[in-house]
Amino acid sequence: MNTAIVGNPLKNYIGGQWVDSLTTRFEDVPNPATGELLSRVPLSTREDVDKAVAAAKEAFVSWSATPVVDRARIMFRFHSLLVKHEDELARMITMENGKNLPEAQAELLRGLEMVEFACGMPTLMMGETLPNIANSIDSQVIRFPLGVVGGITPFNFPVMVPMWMYPIAITAGNTFILKPSERTPLSSIRIAELLKEAGLPDGVFNVVNGAHDVVNGLLEHPDVKAISFVGSQPVAEYVYKTAATNGKRVQALAGAKNHHLVMPDTDLKRAAKTITSSAFGCAGERCMAASAVVAVEEIADELIAHLIEEANALAMGNGLEEGIDLGPVIRDSHLSKVHDYIEKGVASGAALVRDGREEAQKLPDGYFLGPTIFDKADAEMVIVRDEIFAPVLSVMRVKDFEEGLETISRSRFGNGATIYTNNGKWGREFVQQVEAGMVGVNVGVPAPMGFFAFSGWKQSFYGDLHANGKDGVLFFTKKKTVTSRWFEDGDTSIGSQKVFVK
Ligand code: NAD
């Protein structure tokens, strides 16, 4: 990493310059696999936000007037730089987040898809025209950028989640302020450097590091026109309400409890492999992770035996090392909360059939938890009601498909849901009936690619237009409908109107 620019403590990136925050408060950024201190992040102030908004507002004047093809060309150059620096970026993700290198590379790839999507902005931003809607009158819809927009992101995909936002936002002509997670602030700094290298004018992309004060500064600033948020459910709800109260457009993607329904006709070994990868990949810190399995009773014992076997085969450790399947969770404090959940699960009567706490003791410096599996959980237990966001999987047993669907419907979340079956009727019924925005049929992580909307339901999403795809373009642009009529010289009429008679 370019520490000369980044500095330690980290700086903010405002108007194309690396500047010190005005704060006196800082937070440590450790490597979660080792506890080693990587950097210190400033908890920036509202005054820092004001400076960034002023710089972004000034840059908006010329950036929004820059032809969209020229804006897209910068995205093409940015894409090449991302590919060139792929290894460096992936290592940075692994160091600050803990996921293993292949997972970090996959994250980058999913982010690259968003940049590729934004490269098509000349087509995506096209309006609509209908000539002669009345005699000699034409109508057209033109799309405009909104102005200064803000992105507030979580720790679990430090490169990809911001890429759900800024490539579309800035290629559509907005200027952007990113508030990365204070727990994973490093890769955003490298991204800012690469955007500058790609030729992005100063002030178009800004980074203000910090936590609540920066978020509130963005939510309440009159010159910020829209907020895109991704994070936990309570914060998403708060961001949605506060941004809306302050007259902003807002999309807030929230937490999840993704249920996977396993039917008796499926290949159980294959289903267990898929569920294991979904539940324990990225240490369970994915908003699309399988966290609750709903197993039809007649196959539950066999499925659980396969799940335990698959989990036993996972190698846990520092994700920078070869052959590691399972990295740490993000912080010691998070690990303590997860331990509490495990205790609560046991106390509520669920059967702890695989306890990942013991094997974690071999890795005392990092924040590790081995794959943890509960059997005989039910929808009312706190381990099923809450998002734990760790390698903890709860299995519930049900009589049949209908009871499975009913069990899933009791969750307050509706991000992802998957069914494992060979039966087309069940597969189709599940797609139609399940209350979730992203549905998998025999797919463990049914996260849509960048050109589709990323869309949770229920308490997994607050807003209207979802992230990514055409929704993302609609979110970051506003429409103007023009009705026009032109006269010949000397024509004094006000135009004719046709009268329709029944
Ligand atoms: P988080 O809610 O703790 O933090 C997200 C952002 O909000 C951070 O930038 C943080 O600084 C800020 N923040 C946190 N608390 C705040 C407060 N009280 N006031 C103002 N701002 C605050 O989330 P996290 O732990 O970083 O990320 C994990 C969560 O994100 C999980 O719940 C996960 O499901 C969710 N997530 C959802 C999606 C999705 O698409 N629905 C995608 C990724 C992550």
UniProtKB/TrEMBL annotation:
It is an enzyme of class 1 (oxidoreductase). It comes from Brevibacillus brevis (strain 47 / JCM 6285 / NBRC 100599). SUPFAM superfamilies: ALDH-like (SSF53720). This is methylmalonate-semialdehyde dehydrogenase (CoA acylating). It comes from the Bacteria. Pfam families: Aldedh. The lineage of its organism: Bacteria, Bacillati, Bacillota, Bacilli, Bacillales. One of its GO terms (molecular function) is methylmalonate-semialdehyde dehydrogenase (acylating, NAD) activity. GO terms for biological process: L-valine catabolic process; thymine catabolic process. InterPro entries: Ald_DH/histidinol_DH, Ald_DH_C, Ald_DH_CS_CYS, Ald_DH_N, Aldehyde_DH_dom, MeMal-semiAld_DH. Its EC number is 1.2.1.27. Keywords: NAD, Oxidoreductase. Residues 18-482 form the Aldehyde dehydrogenase domain.
